[in-house]
Design goal:
Blueprint: E1 12-14, H1 19-25, E2 29-34, H2 41-51, H3 62-70, E3 78-84, H4 86-92, H5 94-113, E4 117-123
Parallel strand pairs: 1-4, 2-3, 3-4
Protein name: Barstar family protein
Family: Belongs to the barstar family.
Organism: Deinococcus radiopugnans ATCC 19172
């Protein structure tokens, strides 16, 4: 069976079952960003800071996020971002999620141009769609 890490990263993809174990097998560093409590840009940047294990000097803006994701000194050559509760976040905050998606996809393209890989994996938490 074909696994997500068998192919070059392309856009935001559905996370595989057991993404952590699978990533470990492919030697992909996996970072988890949880969107459940994101309600504005500030809480989004905080979720990214936590999920990417950034220091407090992270600029908390789109350019700083792009720089962090594309910095070969700071990021492994094979990186996966597990975007937890991402679809719900997109439904709740279409403008904010659109901006985030643009930065993530730009960083993914930059990584590919430099022989690096950045997987963007959307994983939904078990919940009732009525709570969207």
């Amino acid at each position: 069976m074909m696994q997500v890490f068998d192919e070059a990263p392309e856009g935001i993809q559905k996370a595989p079952h057991e993404p952590r174990m699978l990533a470990a097998g492919y030697q992909v560093a996996l970072r988890e960003v949880v969107f459940s409590d994101v309600h504005d840009k500030e809480s989004l940047m905080l979720a990214l800071l936590r999920g990417l294990a950034l220091t407090d000097n992270f600029g908390r803006n789109w350019d700083a996020l792009y720089d962090v994701l594309t910095d070969p000194e700071a990021r492994p050559a094979k990186l996966g971002l597990l975007l937890r509760d991402f679809e719900h976040f997109c439904h709740r905050h279409p403008h904010l999620s659109g901006e985030l998606e643009r930065v993530l996809l730009d960083a993914q393209r930059d990584a590919a141009e430099h022989g690096r890989q950045l997987w963007l994996l959307s994983e939904e938490l078990e919940s009732d769609p009525a709570n969207w």
